Amino acid sequence: MSNSEEFIPYQKRDQTEQEMLERSSSYYRLMNERRSIRMFSDRDVPFEVIEYIVKTAGTAPSGAHKQPWTFCIVRSTDLKAKIRQAAEEEEYKSYNGRMSETWLKDLEPFGTNWQKPFLETVPWIIVVFKRAYELEEGNKHQNYFVNESVGIACGMLISAIHHVGLATLTHTPSPMNFLTQLLERPENERPYLLLPVGYPADDAKVPDLARKGFDEIAVVYD
């Protein structure tokens, strides 16, 4: 292996098989409680908590370690109001012409519509941008497997949010170009996902849904 002097020892964590089983089952039970929430409390969340959540997402693997993501963390009341207004304009168009009848039918169990008041209720909004390429002194430098890398980071972000007892929703108003403009992002960044982050409302409810079982999502080659 070339340039071996640039490598450092891997800090492994040895666990017994029993410990691995207990930790894996415990983590599954925790994550199986995760639900997408549309009813949020306005209760404050310390910035330090959000900072660690985002730093956790930033530990995700990425193509050639390019880390092609930017997490825009929004607390500004004025900016949240503008994001809601722009998102609702796009969502209204989607619910009234853009979406197919089949799509609208599939959304019925969730009781959702074009109105998104939670975008102003939550204390924080995290908007994830994917960096299509890097710009250095006017020159473009390629990033690799951008969608895959950012998708993994978002999954870790959602997991970290749930881990600390907060809730979120994967919100993708389409098109999302208004986020680029409102957040004044550079030309190499594209909006990928919008996540309201906060405590669920005391009266929050979610659809009575079931997740697919292991045998429905996995194929084992023994």
Structure summary:
40% of the residues lie in helices and 15% in strands. The chain is α+β, with helices and mostly antiparallel strands. The chain is globular, with a radius of gyration of 20 Å.
Description:
40% of the residues lie in helices and 15% in strands. A hairpin with a 2-residue loop joins strand 3 and strand 4. A four-stranded antiparallel beta sheet has the order 1-2-6-5. The protein has eight helices and six strands, in the order H-H-E-H-H-H-E-E-E-H-E-H-E-H. The two termini are 33 Å apart. The longest helix has 22 residues, at 77-98. By secondary structure, the chain is α+β, with helices and mostly antiparallel strands. The chain has a single domain, classed as NADH Oxidase.
What is the beta-strand fraction?
15-25%
CATH level-four homologous superfamily name: NADH Oxidase
What is the number of helical segments per DSSP (H or I, 4+ residues)? 8
**Overall SS class:** alpha+beta
- Strand order within the widest beta sheet: 1-2-6-5
Biggest pleated-sheet summary: 4 strands, antiparallel
Distance between the termini: 33 Å
CATH topology: NADH Oxidase
Instruction: State the share of residues found in helices, binned by percent.
Output: 25-40%
What overall geometry do the principal axes of the alpha carbons give?
globular
Number of domains: 1
CATH first level: which class? Alpha Beta
| SSE topology string | HHEHHHEEEHEHEH
Low-confidence stretches: none
Number of strands: 6
Name given to the CATH architecture: 3-Layer(aba) Sandwich
